[in-house]
Amino acid sequence: MTVEITVGHTWDGQVIPKGHHSRFTLRRMERGIVLEVDAPYWGDTKPAELPGSTWELWNYEVVEWFVVGQGSPRPYLEVELGPHGHYLVLQLCGVREIVRKELPLTFHAEILGARWFGRAVIPEQFLPPGPFTHNAFAIHGVGEHRVYYSHTPVPGHGPDFHRIGCYSELGIFR
């Protein structure tokens, strides 16, 4: 089964122009999930590190997918992907409580004009126990021009993607 996700709002729910949309395609495979991304390329400065696992990737142009499982505290996986081949994978248990960081990932990205495309393979063992909720995000810009887009809005006083109680159901993977 395939799930299509569109990041088509600001973090607080305002509709954004279609040309600013990022699209995620999730496909279940035998040992995990294939996550494909089609996103605008904004031309922000890339990380100084070589492509691969990159700590604090959230400070750069990036798309993110969070999948939350069941349990108390709530376990979740954060997958961040950048247009230059950088990624960051975190397993958390409880809001912002990292239990494993910089997990290895098979990821490839390519910039084609004004858009970039990526493909990541997320191993089954990285996923929390289901059933799941999830959300997807896109971030770009610098300083006061930083922009935060979301699939499902995360209301509050500012963009906080760890408001995991605001996520939508994802019932296809278990």
Task: Provide structural commentary.
- The chain is mainly beta and 174 residues long.
- It has a single domain (2-127, 147-170), classed as Immunoglobulin-like (Sandwich).
- The protein is 0% helix and 49% strand.
- It is built from no helices and 14 strands.
- The protein has strands at 2-7, 9-10, 22-29, 32-40, 52-53, 62-68, 75-81, 86-93, 98-101, 106-112, 115-123, 132-140, 147-150, 168-170.
- The strands form two sheets. Strands 2, 5, 6, 7, 8, 9, 12, 13 and 14 form a nine-stranded mixed sheet that branches.
- Strand 7 and strand 8 (86-93) form a beta hairpin.
- The protein is globular, with a radius of gyration of 15 Å.
- The mean pLDDT is 94.
Please give a quick description of this structure:
This protein is mainly β. It is built from no helices and 14 strands.
Describe the structure using short key phrases.
single chain, 174 residues, mainly beta, Immunoglobulin-like, nine-stranded mixed β-sheet, five-stranded antiparallel β-sheet, 14 strands
Q: Count of DSSP helices?
A: 0
- What is the C-alpha radius of gyration, as a whole number of Å? 15 Å
Count of beta strands: 14
Shape: globular
**Low-pLDDT segments:** none
Order of helices and strands: EEEEEEEEEEEEEE
What is the C-level CATH assignment? Answer: Mainly Beta
Instruction: Give the helix level as a range of percent.
Output: under 10%
The CATH topology is what? Immunoglobulin-like
State the end-to-end distance.
11 Å
Q: Provide the residue-averaged pLDDT.
A: 94
How many structurally independent domains? 1
Strand content: over 45%
The SS-based structural class is mainly beta
Largest sheet: 9 strands, mixed
How does CATH name the architecture?
A: Sandwich
